[in-house]
Amino acid sequence: MPKSYLVRTELERILSTLGEGDTVPPERELAARFEVSRETVRQALHELLVEGRIERRGRGTVVSQPKLTQPLSLKSYTEGALSQGRVPARLLVTWEDVIGDDELCEELGLPPGSTVMHLERVLLADGERIGLESTYLPKSRFGEFTETFDPGTSLYAAIRASGVEFASATERIETVLASPREAGLLESTTAMPMLLLHRRTLDTEGVPIERVRALYRGDRIAFVATLRE
């Protein structure tokens, strides 16, 4: 059995005795305790780091808080975070009007060359950056949001308040690595696995509402779905 696996097993036992924010023993101490090389300890710690069990703070390592679990549903990010006692927030990165390409216009049910609103925001939970969300909305339908919408608040709440009802969405989730720009905005690294979500949402009349591309830190968030036959 690989030494790194045995070390990881012992590290998990140690973590089970610690609380959120507690300091994990340093590599040198762990290597001496387990009688292995520091490289072996480093590999086991890296695996736990990628899984979100631990995190770097300054020059040390501490136990992470549990991942934020988001439901795959038509609930907003705000609702999902609040339901778990977390404090949601958003940082505006980009808010601009763009000319949609043929694919984007088709997905939004618009004529080719239509103007589309692009809203890009960093998602936060308890002040920690966990996601980067890019939303595309038909300018002809939601143009008033330029004057009325606060980008630090829930977009879904604003859409519902405008009289639009959500009915269905198609989502695809895959694992990717972030670009240098994305990693910088998420205060992560290009080596950290990310969850990429694509979503197209329709209203009760079958008219497209939005197209979303959202990138989430794999060490900070998980998704859950309720399945019924």
Automatic annotation (TrEMBL):
<dbReference type="InterPro" id="IPR000524">
    <property type="entry name" value="Tscrpt_reg_HTH_GntR"/>
</dbReference>
<feature type="domain" description="HTH gntR-type">
    <location>
        <begin position="1"/>
        <end position="66"/>
    </location>
</feature>
<dbReference type="InterPro" id="IPR011663">
    <property type="entry name" value="UTRA"/>
</dbReference>
<protein>
    <submittedName>
        <fullName>GntR family transcriptional regulator</fullName>
    </submittedName>
</protein>
<dbReference type="Pfam" id="PF07702">
    <property type="entry name" value="UTRA"/>
</dbReference>
<dbReference type="InterPro" id="IPR036388">
    <property type="entry name" value="WH-like_DNA-bd_sf"/>
</dbReference>
<keyword id="KW-0238">DNA-binding</keyword>
<dbReference type="Pfam" id="PF00392">
    <property type="entry name" value="GntR"/>
</dbReference>
<keyword id="KW-0805">Transcription regulation</keyword>
<dbReference type="GO" id="GO:0003677">
    <property type="term" value="F:DNA binding"/>
</dbReference>
<dbReference type="InterPro" id="IPR036390">
    <property type="entry name" value="WH_DNA-bd_sf"/>
</dbReference>
<dbReference type="GO" id="GO:0003700">
    <property type="term" value="F:DNA-binding transcription factor activity"/>
</dbReference>
<dbReference type="GO" id="GO:0045892">
    <property type="term" value="P:negative regulation of DNA-templated transcription"/>
</dbReference>
<keyword id="KW-0804">Transcription</keyword>
<dbReference type="InterPro" id="IPR050679">
    <property type="entry name" value="Bact_HTH_transcr_reg"/>
</dbReference>
<dbReference type="InterPro" id="IPR028978">
    <property type="entry name" value="Chorismate_lyase_/UTRA_dom_sf"/>
</dbReference>
